Amino acid sequence: MAQLARPLPIISPVNRPFWEAARRHELRLQRCHACDRFWYPPGPVCPRCWSRQYDWAAVSGRGAVTSWVVFHQVYFQYFRDRVPYAVVQVELEEGPRLLANLVGATNADIRMGMPVEVCFEEVTAEVTLPQFRPRS
Ligand code: ZN
Predict the structure, then answer these.
(1) Which of 23, 72, 91, 100 is the most exposed place for a label (fewest CB within 10 A)?
(2) What distance in angstroms lies between residue 99's CA and the mean position of ligand 1's atoms?
(3) How far is the CA of 94 from the centre of ligand 1 (A)?
(4) Smallest Cα–Cα separation from 49: which of 62, 61, 31, 66?
């Protein structure tokens, strides 16, 4: 039988603080000291002003669905018995957009602008995945 390992993110020196925060069930993103904006995905410089001065600041975890896709094709065997499943793009109140799974809702429930909040799925000792769930 084929190994059904879940595909997991690759943790690098640049994104490690993001994943360490997720293990604590905190959503933290890089915030630029020069222009005071958050950015995601993690990178070594602010994508707007190229400053290298930033910190990892907690964000609200609240946002809205701005796009989604429902996967029917099985690209990884782990998902063989999980299709069709949704991947949503969530625009956080702070601005950056993240891709994640939506939990606590059916694929038919998903709407543009749907209010959501972050929640966390502990997958391995190293990886806890930020996910999103509906909020009222
Ligand atoms: Zn900046």
Answers:
(1) 72
(2) 22
(3) 14
(4) 31
- Indicate whether 25 pLDDT > 90: yes
State in Å: Cα 53 to ligand 1 middle.
8
Query: Per-residue pLDDT tens for 78-123?
Result: 999 999 999 999 999 999 999 999 999 999 999 999 999 999 999 9
The reported pTM is 0.92
User: How far apart are the CA of 27 and the centre of ligand 1, in A?
Assistant: 20
Q: Which long-range contacts (CB under 8 A, 24 or more apart) does 116-121 make?
A: 116/62, 116/63, 116/64, 116/65, 116/88, 116/90, 117/61, 117/62, 117/63, 118/27, 118/61, 118/62, 120/22, 120/25
Distance 39 CA to ligand 1 centre (A): 9
First to last CA, the chain: 43
